[in-house]
Amino acid sequence: MDDYKNKLGSLADKLKKEAPKTPIQEVLPVKVTAAQEPKVQFNNRIPKGLLKRLKAAGLDEDISLQELTIQALENYLSQKAEPK
Predict the structure, then answer these.
(1) pLDDT given at position 65
(2) Of the candidates 76, 54, 56, 78, which has an alpha carbon nearest to the alpha carbon of residue 66?
(3) Across all residues in the chain, what is the average pLDDT?
(4) Over the stretch 15-49, which tens digit does the pLDDT of each residue have?
(5) Number of helices (H) and strands (E), helices first, in the chain?
(6) At what angle do helices 65-81 and 48-61 cross, to 10 degrees?
(7) Nearest to 39 by CA among 73, 75, 76
(8) Domain limits at 56?
(9) 20 domain-assigned
(10) Under 8 Å between Cβ of 47 and 37
(11) Residue 66 to residues 37, 50, 77, 82: CA-CA distances in angstroms?
(12) How many structural domains comprise the chain?
């Protein structure tokens, strides 16, 4: 028991002598994300074959069906807006 008290006593003395080491934190800039337009649900019925082609195109380009649909609609509307 005395040995245990001696070890604890020396540990307490050691802790009193040494200044505590404070960890240095890495400061990183805050990521600023562009404000996104809120999304709404858009349901539409399309032919089954077209859906299969859309899914295959999404797999080939490694993008989601949602993103593929958004791109297709944006391309269509931008082409319609161009004067002929």
Answers:
(1) 93
(2) 54
(3) 85
(4) 777 777 777 888 888 877 777 888 899 999 999 99
(5) 3, 0
(6) 100
(7) 73
(8) 47-84
(9) no
(10) no
(11) 15, 14, 17, 25
(12) 1
